[in-house]
Amino acid sequence: MKGFFKSSIGKKLIMSISGLFLILFLLFHLCMNAVVLFSECAYNSVCAFLGSNWYAVAGTVILAAGFLVHIVYAFVLTIQNRKARGTDRYDSQNLPKDVEFASKNMLVLGIIIFCGLITHFGQFWAKMMFADLIGCEEAESLSTNGAYWINYYFHECGALSIVLTVVYLIWFAALWLHLNHGFWSAFHTAGLSNKTWIPRLKCIAKWFSTIVCLGFAVIVIYAACGGIKVPQGCCKDKQAVECQQSTQTPCQQESNK
């Protein structure tokens, strides 16, 4: 068994399983964030429910571990494959026609996705769950107001909001390519490699990746157009009420100085 997981097939299986786990998280994250399109108050309630509770923290740790495993094995397999090929790199003239762009650039796409994830964590997770965990007084009143931060980053900061909107859309495009190939490839590695299931899985992968990435893109574009408002007086949570007392975002306050 130990030899199996040290083999190339075993490593691919571990990366596939961790990838499927992350796909489930993306679906959950989309469902959670899509709430803001219908009700900012309901979205803030979801943020308050998750907050820094033990189950949310445990989920974050497990998620981080899943990402770490996926990224480490992606690098290991890439290095291993390049060593096996030696100087025989991909020759675009000799590649089979069914080799996809994404399959040749999964590591590059993964790096783009990772950089986007770090940006996302710095803007939202660090300002909400992490700020709550360390007891940051300055951010305490905003730690459960997710609608505030979405509106702040994508609409209230002028040129920065435009740049962030474009960066996020590029991130979603890279995610679409990565998901579209990774989804069916994970099942292929797990054993579903016959001619009946591969076309079906590719179709499912295309629909799933399109729905997920388009859903995230709609939220960002909707926010950039000013569709998301900071809730006023609809949340009973003390922190939410405190943050609602300020009607200006930091960018607005800075522009008034």
Description:
With 257 residues, this protein is mainly alpha-helical. It has a single domain (2-86, 99-251), classed as 3 helical TM bundles of succinate and fumarate reductases (Up-down Bundle), CATH 1.20.1300. Helices cover 74% and strands 0% of the residues. The chain contains 13 helices and no strands. The protein has helices at 2-6, 8-34, 40-50, 54-85, 101-104, 106-125, 129-133, 137-140, 146-154, 159-190, 197-224, 238-244, 250-255. The longest helix is centred in the N-terminal third of the chain and has 32 residues, at 54-85.
Following the backbone from N to C, one meets helices and strands in this order, namely HHHHHHHHHHHHH
| Rg over C-alpha atoms, rounded to the nearest angstrom | 21 Å
CATH-defined architecture: Up-down Bundle
Indicate the low-confidence ranges by residue numbers: 89-98, 234-250, 252-257
Helix content: over 70%
Shape: globular
Biggest beta sheet attributes: none
